[in-house]
Structure formats: C-alpha cells, structure tokens
Fold:
Amino acid sequence: MGARGPRGPHATDRPRLTVRGWGVTLAGIVFFLAALILGNRDLLTVACLLVGLPLVALMVVRRGRAELDVARNFVPDVVAVGDPTQVTVTVTNRARRPVAASRCRDGDEGEWSGGSLPFPALARASGRGLGRVRGVIRYTVTPRQRGIHEVGPLIVHSGDGLGLVTWERSYPGAQRLAVIPRVEDLSGDGANLGGSDGAIDRARLSLAGGTDDTLPREYRPGDPMRRVHWRSTARHGDLMVRQDEEQSDPQCWVILDNRMSSHPDFERSGGRSSRRVVSAGFEWSVRLAASIAVHAQREGYRARLVATADPTVLDAAANDRGGTQSAHDALLEFASMNLLGGLTHGDYAHELEQVMRASGGSRPVFAVFGSIDEDEASRLARLGVLGRPATIFVMRSAPGVEQTLTRAGWRYITVSETDDIATVWQEVTARGSHVVH
Structure:
C-alpha cells in the first residue's frame, strides 16, 4: 500500500535562527553599539563578523535545500487497534546536489510520526532522470485509535554546520492507513446465527406480513430459472420462485447507532489530518458490532452494516443480490465509521424494513445502541418481527423502551462499555431460543 506524492517539496516554514544563531546575532549588535560608542574599529569588525555569520548560514541552508520524491508503504497495510505495523518510507533525491544526513519525522502527529528518525545521506542525481539515489527509513507504529489515518508528510530537518540556522521542510505524499477495531472471536461459544423453523418463527413471519420460507413468491429480474416453482406458476399464471432457495445466500443486518446524541461522553480527538469525534461507549459499540459482523461472515452470512445517522449503505445492499464479502471487507466498513450529528439521509429503520420485505423471508438483525427513547423504539418495532433473531444491545434507555421492544419481538440486552464482549455474546446465546447450539 504505497503512495507517491506530487513532485517537489512544499515548505512548511522558512529557515529560522536557532537559539545559538540568535545569541550570535545579539552579540554582534552589542559589539556594534559598543564600537559606535567607543569609536573602536576592531569592535566594529567583530560585530560585522558576528552579524554576518547567521546571514551566510541562512543563504547556505536555502541553497542546499533538497528535492525529494517520497513513497510510503505499510506492512501490514490494514492493522487492528493495538497491533504494530512497519512503515517504510523511500526517499529519492532529484537534485543535482547531495543531501546530507540529518533528522526527520513522518508527519506532525506524535503517534504516527515515529519520533525523531535518522535521515540518510543521499548522493546527487547523476543525470537527467537517471541515477537517482534512494534512501529507506523504517519505523514501527502501534495505533491506539480506530479509523482511517493519514501518515505523513515527511518532514526533514536541515541546518548549517555551526548550528546557527534550522529548517524543517515538508515533502508531500501522506498515505492513509486503515486501523480496524479489535474484535472478539464469538465462534467458540458454539452458536450460529440461523433460526429454527418452529412455530414461534412462523408466527412472527405472519405478524410481519411476510411469507413462510417454503411459500413461492413472484419472479424478480435476476432470479435464476432453477428457482422457478412450476406448479405455482401454472396456478397463478405468472412466474413464481421458491423462497427456500434464497436462504442459500442469507444476509445478516447489523445496525450501529452512530449519533452523537446517543453517546454523551463524546469528545473531539486526533490531529489535523484525522480530527474526529470519539467516545468510549461508541468505540465499545463498534467492537461489538464488528465482532458480530465477522462472526456472521464466518457462519456463511453476508453481513450488512446500517448506520443510524447515515443509512445510505442500504441503497447498495438492496441492489446486491450476489457476490461475497470477506470478514476483512466488513471490518474496513467499521474502520471508517464515525459519530455524526444526527439523521442525515432519512429514516434507517423504514429503509431497512423496505429492503428486508423486498428480499423476502426473515434475516438475523442485531442492533447496538447507546441511548434509546420511545420514538426510536417505535421505529425499531417493525424490524423486530422481520428479524430472526432480532437482538438489540442498549447502554441507556427511557422507561418503557424495553417493554416496547420485547413485545415487538426483540431480545433486549442491557450492556455497558466495561462489559466483556465474549461474555455479552454468551448471554445472547443463553437467552435466545432461536440461536441454535
């Protein structure tokens, strides 16, 4: 996962005097004033020398500026929170002058910069576009925060031999690194996500206005002809297909509440390149939702993430009737999930209900919420009879919410950000009559 930035450096600052440089300059000014007062030409000579040295150093540093190409890659290029990744920065000298060894850092953010790193000496380019001398800088970072982070740009320190002038120059080419949430392995609990075909399931399907899995439905463009139920087709006069065939490509829906209003402990975090709103409760919710999604993938389901503040993922999911998604792909969706101000693209519950009804049958639905009130519970109620199973994890709720959701078919589980995720999942499997052991 490498990137090459635009050609040519971009100065973040001009050359500036160091503490030593300012000291020499001030000493020169003092000697100059003393020479004027005392009329001593020797003092004037010393003053000119002291003032001139920093000026010469400034010119030398500006003239010796490097012209570098920067490329960067990570191993691994997708990393979980708390796991190390090795960063390799390759620099190529494009100038016809050598670059002296110095120090550098990879970006302004301390967590990602690698600290103060040695910058290798580079020989001058021997010809036009040929013989560019490359150097490699390696360091390891261990990300502590989930998200899509920008690493870079490379900032190289240069100065004169006397230590009078310093210059930090930035070279474009920042590279994004995906940091996925650390997930728990839920498969060891012996549970899968599928539902039984018992009387309870059929009653819930009937209440939802759906059909039994064995009943045919109307043919839709894209359905393979092997699904056609010929006896029903002859009876209705229209092509009908078997519902039970759809179960060979099941979906699992994971609803994640990413509204700031649901997580009052949020705060703004990160540097200039990755500024975002974070919350301990939300990060725990992401870990739980991601763990369930990965578990669903391993059980043979296509896990679909729905964010309460931005449910536009439903548009793509509604049109996607084939293909597979790996657990790795599912985790990348969670890496970029952020807290948002509120509903931005419509009612997620209504949209998800439409998608689930259009797909036929019922699918497992898992919802992870920070805070929930009666209005939110009312929106979720219809999903309770469409999901099999339908499980909701809630940190905080208004009075009466649990009763409303339980009556609608949801399994209601109270959680907190200090809970162990594996233990929470064991409670799910212990409670649910629809989770098969």
Notes: The CA atoms of residues 35 and 44 lie 5 Å apart. DSSP finds twelve helices and 21 strands in the chain. The first strand starts at residue 3 and ends at 4. The two ends are 41 Å apart (CA to CA).
